[in-house]
Amino acid sequence: MYKVFFITFGCKVNYYETECMKSLFRESGFEIGTELSSADAVVINSCTVTSSGDSRVLSALRKTRAMLPNAVIALTGCYPQANSEDAEKISDADIILGTKNRSIVADLVLDCLNEKKRIVRLSDYTADEPFEPLKCTRFDDNTRAFVKIQDGCNQFCSYCIIPFARGRCRSKPIEDIRSEIQAIAESGKKEVVLSGINLAFYGREFGLDLADAVEVCAEIKGIERIRLGSLEPEMMSDRLLERLSAVPQFCPQFHLSLQSGCSKTLKDMNRRYNADEYYELAQRIRKIFPECSFTTDVMVGFPNETEEDFNNSLAFVEKMQFAKVHVFRYSRRKGTKADKMSGQIPENVKTERWRRMTETASRCREKYLSSLVGKTVPVLFERENSEDFYHGYAPDYTLIKISRKKAKKSLRNFIFYVTIKEYSSDCCYGESELIK
């Protein structure tokens, strides 16, 4: 039996797709390896969102080839799809696949193992590209499952290469979602996270929207929590929000993509909203979901971002009081409009702005966590992460820890109400009278 090992870079969508590919290899008789050194084949599922991400992918490829000179190595994912000319020249990979045709990846690896031939399967996306029918048939031991229901992006933000790596927006048919969620529930999982490249665009080609997908999940017995991945603000209509609020299983944690709190910078980024519109949306969401939390991503050092622009973004983040912010420096990306812009920001300035924004984000997080003290929330517990604590997550995705001394048995995959007693910089601590 051949062993295949997986190396995955990038977002939750990539990790979901890796799990789907593992299912395909199992069906083809492969064993999923746990150690790279013993693999007959290696699949590297790549990311290309930044140039530094490209470097990490190519470094992993070189190191894998040096360790396993006789193994079959397949390079798949966003890097070869967005950089096809460069990818075709990579001699360390036996198979170059991109983000299409992954339903045949196991067959291609078998062909390569048996015939020792090099295979390149790269093609551009078409306007009417269908949703790739990948799904998992086995699930890991986490208490939540990620499910990709949307792929592609039509937005073409000036800094982003993803529309070239993923094609245009397309959605998983609603009945396919139903069957996959049913399998997840039967595996014992209680929480699902719906994900996509531009998730808020789900279902447009079917005359549906994201609420339809959430409602289908809620119909499945055993699913007690439904979360959403990253969302684009301009697609969050009041009608969608009202429908989501009517679903008891819906977890009101909104990862609402921001990128900058400065309207001028947002325009330069080709984002489809300004700072005021974003804030107004957040206020509407807070009215409908009083116990909601907001998380986001913020970029610093975008071309032509002045000190005043940055300070506006900094003040906006403070005003929003996000529960958590991922702060990152702008990275030039060949093939995007931003790469050709004048006014590129020096790296030392980016680093200083990253430091200041990170400090602001940390203050916001601590303020949010402190606001939870005294509240009682339902917590879905996961595996024990130390000898001292059980941990789990509240509906707003706050990490909650309780002392293991309070429980006589494992709490994993159970939901208990916990009263929050104190907080630290990254989590809250609580107690429950129900845990004995």
Instruction: Work out the strand percent.
Output: 15-25%
Q: What radius of gyration results from the CA coordinates? A: 22 Å
Described by strand count, sense and barrel closure, the largest sheet is: 6 strands, parallel
Number of strands: 18
- Terminal CA distance reads 46 Å
List the strand order in the largest sheet: 2-1-3-4-5-6
* Total DSSP helices: 13
Overall pLDDT confidence? 93
**Structural class computed from helices and strand pairing:** alpha/beta
Helical proportion, percent range: 25-40%
Give the low-pLDDT segments: none
Shape: globular
Architecture overview:
It is a single chain. The chain is an alpha/beta fold. The chain is built from 13 helices and 18 strands. It has a six-stranded parallel sheet, with helices on both faces.
